[in-house]
Write a structure and sequence with these properties.
Layout lengths: L4 H11 L8 H6 L10 E5 L3 E7 L2 E9 L5 H16 L7 E2 L8 E5 L2 E9 L13 H18 L3 H4 L19 H11 L5 H16 L7 E4 L8 E3 L5 E3 L6 E4 H8 L15 H11 L6 H4 L2 H19 L7 H26 L2
Helix pairs in contact: 4-9, 6-7, 6-11, 7-11, 7-12, 8-11, 11-12
Length: 348
């Protein structure tokens, strides 16, 4: 997922040399301490990511606008990260500021941003085209290990503050798949009839699935290779838990492997890459054949959420060339997904 194109344009304009918030990032990093001249922009997606050094060591700064993530959601994310780290899951970890806070908040001309500094994971990102079956098995085993530990997280979440009128108690106010689908439905305009029909199909299907402590819990939600760092010894380290949510563990598998499919294609469980991934997963965590059979539907769930988000992302009338070019590419993805939804409706 990503922030809106309009939001990206405003951020770069505001934090540029002549912008009203040109000193926002340096002033924020003073709360942790940093080496002058080491701040580097990495990327902007759902959040803005920067790299910097302190005492010669690398760190990551993540900026999240309050419209994208609430303070409570970030607190729950970091609680989950700390839980995993305490159980030797190789994840990046939040770094406390000088004031002892894991999250620092600042006002700007663009509104409120929540800032978190993370440890920097050294290594390399695996590339999909370079993975052999052993590589896919290791990828699956890394997810299986994560889910095995995450399945123990319910008791810990009970200690987090909760909203009595929501379905978020188990996840410490991280969104559930049901809430995500409801938000996507609310974001769809009436003219997107094929997408709205897909929502109805997915709602009915999700409500029919059995939920147990072994198949449902906190998932990463974006366990793709871009969010894994391979160390020299081959161990895969995990970063970017910004989208973690409560869902079936099988959903995480479908989301992770989504790049193996073109838009609208169904999962092919005979694909040797998928088979190797699942074999690796099962060395760490149980995955029943009935749960694995749901991968195609969870892929459709992810596509629907992506569609609803992209509709918001591309709302930009004019902007710099890079933004308009990106808008054109994203609108192409939207049209491809519209066609997928229409084909599914016609096949019913």
């Amino acid at each position: 997922m990503m922030m809106t194109l309009a939001g990206m344009v405003r951020f770069f304009a505001a934090t540029g040399e002549a912008g009203p918030d040109a000193e926002m990032v340096p002033q924020l990093l003073e709360r942790w301490g940093y080496d002058a001249g080491t701040i580097r922009f990495v990327r902007a997606s759902q959040n803005v990511i920067l790299k910097f050094q302190r005492d010669g060591q690398d760190f990551i700064l993540r900026l999240s606008h309050e419209s994208e993530r609430s303070l409570q959601e970030i607190e729950a994310e970091l609680a989950f990260l700390n839980f995993l780290a305490q159980r030797d899951v190789p994840v990046h970890q939040p770094v406390a500021s000088k004031a002892g806070r894991e999250i620092e908040t600042c006002d700007s001309s663009l509104g409120v941003f929540h800032a978190v500094v993370f440890t920097y994971l050294h290594g390399e990102h695996p590339e999909l085209e370079d993975l052999d079956e052993t590589g896919f098995a290791r990828w699956g085993a890394a997810m299986g290990r994560l889910h095995q530990v995450a399945s123990q997280y319910e008791a810990e979440c009970e200690r987090l503050p909760r909203d009595a009128d929501t379905d978020q108690a188990k996840t410490g106010r991280r969104k559930t798949c049901f809430e995500q689908l409801a938000l996507a439905k609310a974001a769809l305009p009436a003219e997107e009839t094929a997408a709205l029909q897909e929502v109805t199909r997915l709602e009915t299907w999700l409500r029919s699935l059995p939920r147990t402590d072994d198949n449902f819990g906190m998932i990463h939600f974006d366990f793709e290779l871009d969010n894994l760092i391979r160390r020299e010894d081959g161990e895969l380290q995990i970063l970017d838990f910004d989208g973690c949510s409560c869902n079936w563990f099988a959903a995480d598998i479908a989301f992770a492997l989504r790049d193996l499919y073109v838009a609208g294609a169904e999962a092919d469980e005979e694909d040797p890459r998928i088979r190797a991934f699942l074999q690796g997963y099962r060395t760490k965590k149980t995955l029943l054949p009935a749960d694995a059979a749901h991968l195609p539907m969870f892929l459709r769930f992810h596509q629907l959420l992506m569609f609803a988000k992209l509709l918001d992302v591309v709302r930009l009338e004019s902007g710099p060339e890079w933004a308009m070019n990106l808008k054109a590419r994203l609108e192409g993805k939207l049209q491809a997904l519209r066609e997928c939804f229409s084909q599914r409706g016609a096949s019913k």
